[in-house]
Amino acid sequence: MVGRLSSESSQPVSRYHVKSFGCQMNVYDSERMGDLLAADGHVAVDSADAADIVVLNTCHIREKAAEKLYSDIGRLKKPRADGSRPVIVAAGCVAQAEGAEIGRRAPAVDVIVGPLAYHNLPALLREAAAIPADARGARWGRAIDTDMPASPKFDHLPARRHQGASAFLTVQEGCDKFCTFCVVPYTRGGEVSRPFADLVREAETLVAAGAVEITLIGQNVNAYGLELGGGATLPALIAELAQLEGLKRIRYTTSHPRDMTRALIDAHAEIPKLMPYLHLPVQSGSSRILKAMNRAHTRESYLATLAELRAARPDIALSGDFIVGFPGETEADFADTLRIVSEVGYAQAYSFKYSQRPGTPAATMADQVPEAVKEERLARLQAAITAGAHAFNLASVGRHTEILLERPGRKPGQLIGKTPWLQSAVVSVTGAKIGDLIAVEITEGQPNSVEARPVDRAPSLPAERAAA
Ligand code: 5AD
Ligand code: SF4
């Protein structure tokens, strides 16, 4: 039996829960789906077990991510003590890529909605509710929308309800780069930038609601505005948002090395509110593999971009993504990857075993690397990344800076905040609360975090930059 949605009641009030998998784009989309459901009269709950509608906002980037959807559906479809089960919504990139297959593999799913169509979620729920329960099984999805409309969904979303000190703001979606391993151009479509004025307005709303940090997000965030021509670019947007008085920190992610323009690099030198941190995926340290990946950059051009960034902002912390075991990757190619990790000195980085994604060019390339080799390379790469992160954290001991408090720590009186370099900093402090920016000195460096102590006043970031 389906929760409270029934054919008798086409506009029920239900408790909803949105579970997010994958990237920050999905975190943003999950929040916006929540906004839509709340605007439709539904009420948010913290756990799927207590919800009448469960939205699973999925990720398709690697195989494992898709499997999580099916295991969650398996749990959710089991009848509860009162015989009911929640309405199950499969949203996000798995829904986009595998809509029909989800229907076949998991008939319990009631609504299937892609990442470009979720503004239609309330209508799809109503459509699902209008189908009598005995029709279940006769068709594989109650309601489905995986269209990729030309008009952006953002025009159809209600006002944001975000509360909290740190907020995401999606500025562009989609990708035209077609790296040969990646499904994103197929699931999220081509690059589409949101209008500049809409973004300024949304940022103002967030700041008025208490946000002191905004992270501008997009699959290719630094391509923002480039497809339109004209002045609406990412550095222009950052400069505009830096004028908002209540806003203290600006970040952006994820960037492609190809779109690191001179103006964006200069923004790191010129805009103190732009945090000294950049996530710039390289994927491999071997130019030969980068070519096979269709990355449009080489090892050398990537390193040259980083040199320019460091000239602009000497204390900038760098992060990256790596794939090991791309088809044809030899031990020599992998050694180039290990070498780039030590050469760059990443503050942190993410690494993945290559995963064959159906429909992508690399999936059918010759010389697929055996699983055991991938695993062994991943372990060596992760050890190198962890050592580098630890070295970065140790090198920051003694820095006076500010942290933005985000969550409670494990011990009483402890809070965890973020440094400008995106390190998690553990601090024991009284009289401060989550959402505050407090002055600290970094006292210890761990592999994945730093410890800090409160101090009276932090030097301003520009002064710190001059000292770096
Ligand atoms: N296999 C493994 N990792 C992948 N990524 C993207 N596609 C794949 C794949 N097929 C990684 C890339 C990307 C990150 C978000 O996920 O490193 O930057
Ligand atoms: Fe995928 Fe490459 Fe586009 Fe990033 S740039 S989303 S890895 S195709």
Polypeptide structure, described:
This is tRNA-2-methylthio-N(6)-dimethylallyladenosine synthase. GO terms for molecular function: 4 iron, 4 sulfur cluster binding; metal ion binding; tRNA-2-methylthio-N(6)-dimethylallyladenosine(37) synthase activity. [4Fe-4S] cluster 2 binds at residues 175, 179, 182. Catalyzes the methylthiolation of N6-(dimethylallyl)adenosine (i(6)A), leading to the formation of 2-methylthio-N6-(dimethylallyl)adenosine (ms(2)i(6)A) at position 37 in tRNAs that read codons beginning with uridine. Among the domains are: 15-145, Rossmann fold (3-Layer(aba) Sandwich), CATH 3.40.50; 400-467, Nucleic acid-binding proteins (OB fold (Dihydrolipoamide Acetyltransferase, E2P)), CATH 2.40.50. The N and C termini lie far apart (63 Å). Helix 7 packs parallel to helix 8 and helix 11 runs parallel beside helix 12. By secondary structure, it is an alpha/beta fold. It has helices at 24-39, 63-76, 93-105, 121-129, 184-187, 196-208, 234-241, 262-270, 287-292, 299-312, 331-344, 371-395, 461-467; strands at 15-20, 43-44, 53-58, 87-92, 111-113, 143-145, 166-170, 172-173, 192-193, 213-217, 249-253, 277-279, 317-324, 348-353, 400-408, 414-418, 424-428, 437-445, 450-454. Residues 61-62, 181-182, 281, 283, 321, 323, 352, 354-355, 357 line the site of 5'-deoxyadenosine (5AD).
Q: Please, how many helices? A: 13
CATH fourth-tier homologous superfamily of the domain at 15-145? Methylthiotransferase, N-terminal domain
Largest sheet: 6 strands, parallel
Large-scale geometry: globular
Instruction: Identify the quaternary structure here.
Output: single chain
Count all strands and give the number.
19
The CATH topology of the domain at 15-145 turns out to be Rossmann fold
Rg over CA atoms: 23 Å
Regions with little confidence, pLDDT below 50 for 5+ residues? 1-11, 134-141, 463-468
Mean pLDDT rating: 90
